[in-house]
Amino acid sequence: MGETLLPQVIINGVTLGTNYILMALGFTLIFGVLRIVNFAHGEFYMLGAFFVLTAIIKFEVNYLLAAIIAVIAIGLLGYLTEEVIFRRFRDKELEGMIIALGLSILLQNLGLVAWGPYDLSIPPVFTGVLKIGTLFYPLERLMVVLLSFLLMAGFYLFLKKTKLGLAIQAIAQDTEIARVQGMRINRLYPLAFAIGTGLAAAAGAVIGPLFQLNPWMGIMPQVKAFIVVILGGIGSIPGAFLGGLILGVAESFVSTYASKALADLLGFILVIGILLFRPSGLFGRSQLSR
Amino acid sequence: MITGRGWKAFGVYLLVVVFCGMGQAWGQDVLKLGVIAPLSGTGAGWGLALRAGAELASDDTNAKGGLEVAGKKYKISVIPYDDKYQGQAAADAANRLIFMDKVKFIIGPMGSAAGLAAQEITEVNKVLFVGNSFTTKFLGAKKLYSFRTTMTMAEFSLPMLKYLKEKYPNAKRMAILGPNDETGYEVTGFNLKAHEAVGHEIVFRDYFERGTVDFMPILNKVFALKPDVLNLDGSNPGDCGLIVKQARQMGYKGMIIKVGGPGTPEMLKVAGKDFMEGFIYYSPINPDDPKIQEITKKYNAKFPPPMNGFTPQFYDGTLWLFEAIKKAGTLTDTEKVKAALEGLSFNGVYTGAMSWTGKADYGIDHQVKFPFYVMVVKDGKEVVLGKVTP
Amino acid sequence: MIPKTKTYAILALAAFLFFIPVLWADEFYLNVIINIYLHIILAVSLNMVIKTGKLSIAHAAFMGVGGYTSALTVMRLGLPFLLALPLSGLMGAFIALLVGRLLLKLQGVYFVLVTFAFGEVVRLFFVNLVEPFGGPTGIINIPPPRIALFPGIAFTLLSKVSYYYLVLGVMLVTLFLIHRIYQSSIGKAMDCTRETEHLAEFTGIDTFQHKMFAFAAGGFFAGLAGSLFAHYYRFISPESFTFWESVNLIVINVVGGMGGIAGPIMGSIFLVPLPEFLRGFVEYQRVLYGLILILTLWFMPAGMLGVLNKALDRMKAGKTGKEGTP
Question: CB–CB of A113 and C284 under 8 A?
Fold first, then answer.
């Protein structure tokens, strides 16, 4: 299996990467537009997954439908969250960040109260393994990648082709001018947040069946989202794409050829390096001067 | 800038806080049993097993009228505290149990850090600490009051691997994968030594960080080395389920074994019975034993299922302690109870003949040994492969 | 200079603190109070860093540096505790200076994120290096402090009561030093750095130096706390120095109020014993914690200190009939 090691590593890396991209997109949107470091992003991911779990197990809804409803429901929750909790801190970055931290702790532990400390699992949806030559690829992972690409494409089209999407881009670039132009900030901000959290929930709904569900399942993806967003540049969509892929593939390589411990360290060292030497990341705006 | 008012406030707060937590009712004819275990976070599965074992044993004893000590009957009251699988939290829990709740006997903990940290307090205060801290350092010639009533890899690794070597002489190339936390770290050492002693070839050995869910990159590396057997070592059941699932999805056809703590029902839920076929593991009890069905029912009535294999173990460990207290005839003289416990072998309800060993490895005979089972999963069911007496 | 009445109040309070172990010799309460004191040292030193406008989530990492330094120098090099303690502080300060040079260049949330990454890197170092840090299992059997002042006069701090005095002493020294810094021109310069950095530069204040000083001093006191922590619990592992610990310290500052030393002190007294009093409700503990954080930012953004100051201002205005001076 030595010859197939490299292609398998790459495929693993790309799969890992798409998981990361989905989280990063929502995160970068929220930070780029609202300037909120959403420490609770991982919790919306978690809620998405648990929503699907509850829908399937308690209400016997089919998976795809459950996933769609989850995204909408959590998106709605995000909308309310911005309106109720974050609105006050629109111009106060640090306070906004701390409140997000509080929200994160709150949601994780509400999750603990609601669902207990054990790992739960969503019944597997796509079983079966794809075999191409000596390469193995579980079908469910393929579905994750496909669904992720669909979501990313949809999101991209939304941003570039719809009025709403363009409006969101506008307020990201310059809120004052946007307001002057007549855009309803009070509608657009929560909407942007809702889309961000919706994406996180989508990631949770899609990736959930692959792994275990527990109230702190959002911590790792959140950390990865941080790393990807800083790598790719805050507020940059193509940056999130590229950053996610790079991180995924890099981690896959380092895990396989060096050691897992080093791979875990890698992300953080990358973050420090980038923040120090190229804070705008690959595609973002330079943020050193404020 | 500090103000005088700031200082006044400081004083007021201090007083309020101190007065708040006072008052502790003394129960009459009650034997308080402390429990320190991870009740939240990672390890909560095993922690709950520990707590459940202690509580069910106490319930059953109370149902018979209580524990009779020196002519009087005592109702057992269990006080469980969460150690979050951490050293500091365990030490704080021990502090509270010993000084506030006035407890002399503690069941627990699970984690290495938790055990070692809490021991600093229990040993000094001569409190009997009976549990499963998964580190060799928990037992020692100077640690007079600590006992371990479950077997660790140090005890069952070698006998189990000897058995497997005989049964599967062609399985020689071993890959070992363990978690990068205190528990996983130390016990891998035993697995390694045992593998080598038995003549296996270790082709791979590595650790993963807790919280990892995607094992494909590391499994990729493992399978490139063509192992015959993948040993899941001390990984917790949730992670094991994922590893098995992902390994099989990658087309691995070799053996998967776990020379480590129990958790097969959880694994079956995650990986599914097809992938789990042929999985070999250690079990302290025989799950087909009808008595196990009984305790499972009692467990399910009080705690969230599924019951982890450690529960019957801790049930027996707790009863063993009760026997020792009874034999010593005292609730307060821990020296006597300790001596009684040391001199007692016990036939567990679910576990086989339990006796003390450990002088050679730890310098003190406070480690339990008992015959155990090597199990295999066939068609989603747990089946006994063989019984081994260490 | 501190006005006379304040001096008396402070002395009275200090006397009270000295007598606590006599009044409440209960080991359990002493444990809680020792914990509170350790957190006060950590939270107040973090407050100093925040005073220059930098929110650091790496404070627990410096605590870890101090803890491991102390444990290793005492156990492996045979260093007496009285040397290991300041050495731990110096080590914390040293690492802070080393990385501060680079990290402090970042602003706002970027600084926060980079300290987060740095904290994690430090933790991963502790976790992965079995030699000399003991890896995930950490270091056990750390000896209690052995204080040998003169040949023949040596005592080991084994009891909680004796440890109480040790921690009390270090805490009081810490508070005194930090209080003096805050009162001095350095303290004022720190405030300027936080509030109007460009203007501060304009008036000749080297803001970067002040940030470095605060960061290094913060690292120093965190290192001290780490050493005290290590020899108290006699066991340390990377688990005690995670991101969550740092977050805890920030929450203490936010809830207590960041305006002055009294803020983190009150925050510590309120938040540190909370888990003990909510032991029956383990799951709800953390829910309450998150809720407290959110509600504080919402209703009392200046923390407990802010509320207290406002209340006392109102009382003063009522009493004297004129507006109280903040």
Answer: yes
Question: B72-82 and B67-69: which strand pairing?
Answer: antiparallel
Specify the 3-state DSSP secondary structure of A43. helix
pLDDT tens for each residue of chain B, 390 residues long: 445 555 555 555 555 544 443 333 344 589 999 999 988 766 777 888 899 999 999 999 999 989 989 888 999 999 999 888 888 889 989 999 999 899 999 998 988 888 988 998 999 899 999 988 888 888 988 899 999 998 888 888 899 999 999 999 888 899 998 887 766 677 778 888 889 899 899 898 888 877 778 888 888 888 888 999 999 988 877 788 889 998 988 888 899 999 887 788 888 888 888 899 999 999 888 888 888 888 989 998 888 777 887 899 899 999 999 999 999 999 889 999 999 999 999 888 888 889 999 888 888 999 999 999 999 999 888 888 888 888
Q: Cβ of C255 under 8 Å from any chain A Cβ? A: no
CB-CB under 8 Å, C183 with B7: no
pLDDT given for residue B24 in this prediction: 37
- Tell me the per-residue pLDDT of A84-118, one tens digit each, with 9 for 90 and over: 888 888 878 888 888 999 999 999 888 888 887 77
Quick one: average pLDDT of C209-233?
Answer: 95
- Check if A192 contacts B (Cβ < 8 Å): no
Q: Determine, for residues A268 and C121 on separate chains, whether the beta-carbon distance falls below 8 Å.
A: yes
Q: Which residues of C touch A105 (CB under 8 A)?
A: 286, 289-290, 293
Contacts of C118 in chain A (CB under 8 A): 268, 272
Residue A173 neighbours by CB distance under 10 Å: 13
Kindly report the CATH number assigned to the domain that includes residue A43: 1.10.3470
Is position C55 within any domain? yes
B–C interface: beta-carbon pairs under 8 A: 134
Q: Chain A 193-222, CB below 8 Å of chain B: which residues?
A: 210-212, 214, 216-217, 219-220
Question: Nearest residue on chain B to C274, judged by CA atoms?
Answer: B17
A244-282: b (≥16 Cβ within 10 Å) or e:
bbbbbbbbbbbbbeebbbebbbbbbbbbbebbeeebbbb
- In this complex, the residue of C27, C137, C269 whose CB is nearest that of residue B13 is C269
Interface test with B, best of C276, C278, C283, C285 (most B CBs within 10 A): C276
| Residue A223 lies in domain | 2-289
pLDDT of C128-185, one tens digit each?
Answer: 888 888 887 788 888 888 887 777 777 788 888 889 999 999 999 999 999 999 999 8
**Average pLDDT estimate for C221-245:** 92
The total domain count for chain A is 1
In chain C, the number of structural domains is: 1
- The nearest alpha carbon in chain C to A112 belongs to C283
Q: C86 in a domain, yes or no?
A: yes
A55 in Cβ contact with A74 (< 8 Å):
no
Q: Are A193 and A78 in contact (CB under 8 A)?
A: yes
Residues found in chain B: 390
DSSP label at residue C236:
B
ipTM: 0.84
Q: Alpha-carbon distance C85 to C71, whole Å?
A: 10
Residues 49-88 of C with CB under 8 A from A: 55
Question: What is the domain range of residue C163?
Answer: 26-242
Residue C294, number of CB atoms within 10 A of its CB: 19
Are the C-beta atoms of residues A262 and B180 closer than 8 Å to each other?
Answer: no
Burial of B270 (0-12, 13-18, 19+ CB in 10 A): buried
Residue A69 exposed, middle or buried by CB count within 10 Å (0-12, 13-18, 19+): middle
